[in-house]
Amino acid sequence: MLETLVPQPEDKILKLMGMFKADDRPNKIDLGVGVYKDASGVTPIMGAVKAAEQQLWGAETTKSYTGLAGDPGFSTAMRELVLGDAVASDRVAAAATPGGTGAVRQAFELIQMGNPEATIWTSRPTWPNHLSMLKHLGAKTREYAYFDTETCAVEFDAMMADLGAVAPGDVVLLHGCCHNPTGANLNAAQWRAVADHLVAKGAIPMIDIAYQGFGDGLEEDASATRLLAQTCPEMIIAASCSKNFGIYRERTGLLMAISPSAGATGVAQGTLSHLNRQNFSFPPDHGARLVTMILNDDTLRGQWQDELEAMRTGMLTLRKQLSDELRARTGSDRFGFIAEHRGMFSRIGVTPEQVDQLREKHAVYAVGDSRINIAGMNAETVPVLAEAVAEVIKG
Ligand code: LMR
Q: N or C: which terminal CB in the chain sees fewer CB atoms within 10 Å?
């Protein structure tokens, strides 16, 4: 049997990770995988997380199973973080998952269980693993226009035109904030228009929110998700704690399903637990417990918010610096959008060949679609990157 397997396509982000590791040039710059790094290139354990781990080490008395949907305290804390009081809690079913990716994967399966006929709409472009998982599951998919590669901004009119073809019961996957890979996001009026459109069409929004707190702030980054929750009768949300708590390897995420009325929540909750049981049984607990402790303790929460805010503002400073350095070197405003984009990524709009040149000649690693990880830079490497980009676009 195993001899009949065929090689699977490599994930381009993970492939780049391997290439960067194997490169022995000392000046190499990693702008590939979406992992936050501080100015010294380290992915730090946040102080609030360390403090919670220390407390947990003293207080934890058992490693027995939690519930199939994880610890209810985690679901409550995360529901409040993401949704605030946008929707009555008795309409929200929730289950802990292995990371945000686990939540996305379970969400796709939930959709297939609820409505096998539903088409799942994704932005063009989207996080490549969305497409890969959808293909793996044999889901019906369509794309909607999102990013104008000329202006490096959202092409909203084209997006709405494509979403005109959404059918009742279809699911539209949206990035709650900090769009990955582009860094270009809808404004409040555009979100309002999308929400109204989905209601009019009888379509269901699915939000992937993996970078809450990395864009405009914790509350601001949740505002689109909350608006949709207030507007649409049904909704699915996949939330990740990997980035904003810096607990990537703990695999901590939450899937939420909002039903039109409290009466439907019980079956939705049972279905989320059932899906966990089928795929991996009980979800990981360590990261979820740390998140719960941090969100429920004023001191830890204050420390965490300060640390997260420092990460966010640091990335904004780097965006501005890169945009300024590129303006100075190219004599044009072509890269002004980098300062306007939000989150960990921007797609800087150079060609795949130029991305190859950046890597081969300048040891700068970016994803082939020209996505760069803003947190992969620091004040010293921004001018180096700007120089390299200016050189490759000159040809
Ligand atoms: C990314 O987009 O780089 C991150 O979400 C990490 C990953 O798993 O791809």
A: N
Radius of gyration of the chain (CA): 21
By percentage, how much of the chain surpasses pLDDT 90? 98
Pocket lining: 127 vs ligand 1, CB cutoff 6 Å? yes
Hey, whose CA ends up nearest to atom 4 of ligand 1?
A: 34
CA of 278 to the centre of ligand 1 (A): 25
Same domain, 114 and 208: yes
Q: Choose one of 266, 296, 326: the last residue of a domain.
A: 296
Report d(CA 311, CA 35) in Å as an integer.
12
> Does residue 228 carry a pLDDT above 90?
yes
Amino acid letter, residue 166: V
Q: Three-class SS of residue 364?
A: strand
Residues 290 and 315 in one domain: no
- Structure token digits, residue 188: 């409040």
| Atom of ligand 1 at shortest range from CA of 32 | 3
Q: Is 242 touching ligand 1 by the criterion CB < 6 Å?
A: no
Instruction: From residue 261, give the alpha-carbon distance in Å to each of 206, 207, 340, 347.
Output: 18, 19, 39, 40
Question: What is the domain count for the chain?
Answer: 2
Place of tokens 């949300």: 237
31 lines ligand 1 (CB under 6 A): no
Q: Which tokens hold the place of 182?
A: 């582009």
Q: How many CB atoms lie within 10 A of CB 284?
A: 19
Q: What is the pLDDT of residue 395?
A: 78
To the query of whether residue 210 is one of the catalytic residues in this protein, the response is yes
Q: What is the pLDDT of residues 335-386, one digit of tens each?
A: 999 999 999 999 999 999 999 999 999 999 999 999 999 999 999 999 999 9
Q: What are the pLDDT digits (tens) for 285-320?
A: 999 999 999 999 999 999 999 999 999 999 999 999
Do 152 and 206 fall within a single domain?
yes
Among 276, 296, 316, identify where a domain stops.
296
**30, 162, 170, 208: which one is catalytic?**
208
Q: Does the active-site annotation cover 208?
A: yes
Q: What's the domain range around 160?
A: 65-296
Do 92 and 83 contact (CB within 8 A), yes or no?
Answer: yes
How many helices (H) and strands (E) the chain has is answered by 14, 13
Q: 134 with 12, same domain?
A: no
**Nearest by Cα to 376 from 45, 29, 24:** 29
